[in-house]
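Note to self: keep these together.
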Amino acid sequence: MNRLATHLAERYDGKRILVLGWAREGQTTHTLLTKACPTAELFVSDGNQDVLHAWMQETNIELRIGPYLQDLQQFDVIFKTPGVPIHIPELQEYLASGGVVTSQLAEFLSVYRDQVIGITGTKGKSTTASLIAHLYATAGKEVLLAGNIGKPVFEVASELTPTTTIVIEMSSYQLETVQTSPHLAVLLNLFPEHLNYHRTLENYLLAKAKITRFQNSNDTVIYNQDSAELSLAARNSPARKLPFSYQAQLQYPEVVQQVMTMLNQLDLPSTIKKWNILPALLVTSLELDLSADQMVDALKEFRTLPHRLETVGQFGAVTWIDDTLATIPEATIAALDSLPKVDVLMVGGFDRGISYQKIIDAIQTKKIAAVAFFKPSGQLIFDGIRAQYPESSWPKMQLVESMEEAVRFAYQHAPENGVVLLSPSSPSFGQFKDYEDKSAQYRSWIEQLANQDF
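Structure:
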């Protein structure tokens, strides 16, 4: 067995275990626990119990299904998947009675934390983590990218060696259960988000801060000093502190400063140059023996991630851009700042209860000519523009019920050689299954309607 499996066997074999949540992480948790803990009593439960029965039919693997969030005291330990908030009353009652709630990331860090680079923040985690992994691979290092960006960490354990660097994108959902921090922690930024999950901004910050809360003096935290909250989290860590800033001129390692003066050589979105490259360089400068030219050459080979300012193509003499993962106003504003011009914006989706004032103002100040709004948050943005600005300054606006309607609107209002940007400022679920469904429908309707006469 690998080190993680041995650890799980020592801690949980013979126990009565519940895997709570049955998405990809829940399934990989069940798979590894089945192998590592053969004498454990293993149960699973999900908010949609039908998915468990469907999975059993598809795989012909029998599961022990426990009731959802009921009789939790019967279990010695609960492996919680990220989609289940720790703050719900049932889990709080379980914890108060002496129950143990853990997770993949919590157990993984307790074994491999010395090999882990952890990245968190409200936005930019995936791109920054990918940049770091790309630079390590370019330098010939053994590196794996895992966590919120792709593979659950239990999936990569069998691939690790003692010299593997593991770059993990860590969401607030994942961090809320950890009791161990990574050797190298990166705190990118903090904006109000996920408040429907965490309930308060304080809970959200406390979850994020766990990435550095349990560090020691041999560890390192790289943090954005422009954020008072992240600066406080860093100060509370005994780790070595390396601040960065987008507002102040700080002294960075020489190789980092050299690369930052060479960014004009890179054909990358300006958002990546502005927000992601600096923290990635600070991480890699600690351990990689790469010159500035080598780093720039490596960055030239970096490919941007899907759904992040990704050009879908040119259809109907219009350029269509997919920025579906812009799920907060600040991300959409960054996209608008990075593009020379946006003629039609598609915005809105699930309402997390945050303020949309920034995107309301940005639509006006950027003079976006036409905007399609997905409800329910799109309704709030639509109403905000109408309430706060004179009608003479309004863009052409339409509340849409489907992606087909939004794309038709965009074709009608985008000029020749114009640019259409899908950048929701909100999560996609509600009208869509998730961001991938929203993006797929966007692409599909762009192609289907490309040759119609509007």
